[in-house]
């Protein structure tokens, strides 16, 4: 009897927008793996039952996207160090029959910057816009890289302060009025908010205070070239889009489920860019 194909998934609510099946499907075909990666729309009240039934349904693991990342962190048997620090899970797998939750968002962000702007690791001061779940992952990545001072800026200063307090003395929380002063000595600026995303209000900030050698990153990838990145390029700054983070964060999960470590390359990026363009 032939062995059943390896199975993995992405679950969210809604989940139709996820590009994960496109990414993992590309790698499955490229490596000739008999595997399945599928979307599963799971309502919040069904998440616990869905995760409890993964092994019985033949899944090797899967991805978790909004709005389930924090809830999944509370439902797994254990979490890896990144998931513990960030407080959210985006990748699931089994170890000795137990469901383990990890978070690869910080890894994906750092790996993309390593590929596109490796000088970021020499940064001493970084400014992060936003104080949601994505910001937690970015702050964790920056802290792991040893950046000496990380400033979280949010329109609600209390949310910025609460996030910063989770990561220690080298991370500070600030309200929006402090932004211009913080940009003046920032080596790295990262937008983790939804501002500038298709269908959302624009991110209207003046990049003039940034030093000439600063790097600007935006985790938004729809549109691929946000107004923030266009403004950064207009000033001659290094600008890094959000698509690479999405692609790189998928690597560790694919390796765990399907046994091959895939590569993020131009062919994969072109495939996803074409998909994004088709939906415009």
General description of the model:
This protein has 280 residues and is of the alpha/beta class. The chain folds into two domains: 6-103 and 250-278, 3-Layer(aba) Sandwich (Rossmann fold), CATH 3.40.50.10860; 106-244, 3-Layer(aba) Sandwich (Rossmann fold). Helix content is 37%, strand content 21%. The protein contains twelve helices and twelve strands. A six-stranded mixed beta sheet has the order 2-1-3-5-6-4. Strands 9-8-7-10-11-12 form a six-stranded parallel beta sheet, with helices on both faces. Helix 1 links the parallel strand 1 and strand 2 (35-41). Helix 5 (105-116) crosses helix 6 (133-144). It is globular, with a radius of gyration of 19 Å. The N and C termini lie far apart (45 Å). 44% of the residues are buried.
Question: Quick gist of this model?
Answer:
The chain has 280 residues and is of the alpha/beta class. Helix content is 37%, strand content 21%. The mean pLDDT is 96.
CATH topology of the largest domain: Rossmann fold
Alpha-carbon distance between the two ends: 45 Å
Cα-atom Rg, whole angstroms?
A: 19 Å
In CATH, the architecture of the largest domain is: 3-Layer(aba) Sandwich
Shape: globular
Sheet of most strands: 6 strands, mixed
- The class by helix and strand makeup works out as alpha/beta
Order of helices and strands: EHEHEHEHEEHEHEHEHEEHEHHH
Could you tell me the mean pLDDT? 96
Number of strand segments: 12
Quickly name the level 1 CATH class of the largest domain.
Alpha Beta
Number of domains: 2
Helix content: 25-40%
Give the number of helices: 12
Q: Which residue ranges are poorly predicted, with pLDDT under 50 across at least 5 consecutive positions?
A: none
Strand order of the largest sheet: 2-1-3-5-6-4
Strand composition percent: 15-25%
CATH superfamily of the largest domain: NAD(P)-binding Rossmann-like Domain
């Amino acid at each position: 009897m032939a062995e059943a194909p390896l199975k993995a998934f992405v679950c969210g609510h809604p989940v139709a927008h996820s590009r994960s099946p496109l990414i993992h499907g590309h790698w499955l075909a490229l490596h000739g793996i008999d595997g399945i990666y599928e979307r599963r729309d799971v309502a919040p009240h069904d998440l616990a039952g869905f995760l409890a039934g993964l092994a019985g349904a033949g899944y090797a693991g899967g991805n978790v996207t909004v709005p389930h990342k924090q809830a999944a962190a509370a439902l797994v048997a254990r979490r890896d160090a990144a998931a513990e620090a960030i407080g959210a899970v985006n990748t699931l797998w089994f170890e000795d029959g137990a469901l383990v939750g990890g978070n690869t968002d910080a890894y994906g962000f750092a790996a993309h910057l390593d590929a596109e702007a490796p000088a970021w690791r020499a940064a001493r001061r970084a400014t992060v816009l936003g104080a949601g779940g994505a910001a937690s992952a970015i702050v964790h990545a920056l802290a792991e890289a040893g950046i000496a001072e990380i400033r979280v800026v949010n329109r609600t200063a209390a949310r910025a302060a609460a996030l910063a307090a989770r990561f220690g003395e080298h991370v500070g929380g600030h309200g929006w009025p402090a932004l211009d002063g913080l940009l003046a000595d920032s080596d790295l600026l990262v937008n983790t908010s939804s501002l500038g995303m298709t269908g959302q209000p624009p991110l209207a900030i003046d990049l003039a205070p940034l030093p000439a050698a600063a790097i600007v990153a935006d985790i938004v990838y729809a549109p691929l070239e946000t107004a923030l990145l266009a403004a950064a390029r207009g000033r001659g700054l290094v600008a890094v889009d959000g698509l690479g983070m999405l692609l790189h964060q998928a690597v560790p999960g694919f390796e765990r489920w399907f046994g091959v470590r895939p590569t993020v390359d131009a062919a994969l990026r072109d495939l996803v860019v074409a998909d994004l363009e088709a939906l415009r």
